[in-house]
Amino acid sequence: MLAINGKWLGHSLTGTERYATEVTKRIVAEMGCEVTVFVPKSASVPSWLDSARVIRSRFDGIVFEQFALPLLSLRYHLINIGGPAPVLKMRQTVTLFDASVFRFPETFTRSFVFFYQLMYKLVAHRAINLVTISDFSANEISDVTKIDGRRFTVAPCGSNHFSGLTAVKPNFDVPEFFVVCVGTLAVRKNLVPVVSALVMADIPTVVVGVAGISSVFRSGQVGLVMDELLTVPGRLRDEEIAWLYDRALALVFPSVYEGFGLPIIEAQIRGCPVVCSSRPAMREVGRQSVEYFNPESPGDAVDLVLELQANAVHREEFIRAGKENAARFDWDQTASDILRVAQANRPVSGDRRARR
After folding, report:
1. Is pTM beyond 0.85 here?
2. CA–CA gap between residue 259 and residue 280 (Å, rounded)
3. Can you give the residue ranges of every domain in the chain?
4. Alpha-carbon Rg of the chain, whole angstroms?
5. How far is it, in rounded angstroms, from Cα 296 to Cα 86?
6. pLDDT one-digit tens code per residue, 201-250
7. What's the CATH superfamily of 161-326?
8. Are the CB atoms for 254 and 229 separated by under 8 Å?
9. Are 10 and 27 in contact (CB under 8 A)?
10. Could you tell me which CATH number the domain at 2-158+330-344 has?
């Protein structure tokens, strides 16, 4: 019997929660009441889970996941799609997204680093099957946990959750010519130097990110002066982000470390060209469909944006290539790959083949 760890339900929608939501939707659509979803006490249960068997625990947080969940799922093979997994559980498929807590520990609290590093190492060695989102992440997690990277099944993110969206204009105005940046103020996201360079080059920029990002920009802590060139609305709905992608000159994605880089294919599927950091995960996802720059040289990003503005034919080439690239990444296939591994209920050799 199969069960899903529903701890992520009710959290704000970040890349991890997006992955868990899109994959679980499809597993539930295929299996219905044959799959059980265990959720913590305070979880918000969406309507698309109506056809599944949902069991709510009396506990939340770490107590739910590390103590209650192993008991609740004793007779089940547990699928973990949205972050941490119970270290005491062995019959489980676990998704590990990246090694950022090892590579950039200074961007997290000490308690968070201690827990996640320990959890990654224990779970990686105990779980029956391991899933991750890119070959790059498989290699990174293998390196920091000292496990055989061939144990991973690579099940990448999809783009089709953005392809069918009805765009909705956000509650602010933008000029005819602008670029979009998506991210947080975490150091590895590299937003501050690149956004600063874009604004200094008189390129109107919309920065979409987590709540609170606008107050940091407005306070001057990052050395930016808020003016008509910089719009920082914070968190937006998918439909509003789609509206921006539909009209932006480009997405500028400057991150120095990602497990995948989901905004790349979200922008591409909407016909928005991407100017992106040249780090390995982004190259794996974007292939030849993206304009790459050295993330340590923000001026290079500016030059590529200006080139797209000046050369409409060149921009159209990247729009076409981007749509073809994004179409490789499909949530249905990702969910199918994870379900196949979990249903085997035994160690499965990782499938490290890239999506065609």
Report:
1. yes
2. 9
3. 2-158+330-344, 161-326
4. 21
5. 38
6. 999 999 998 544 444 444 444 545 556 788 888 789 999 999 999 999 99
7. Glycogen Phosphorylase B; (3.40.50.2000)
8. no
9. no
10. 3.40.50.2000
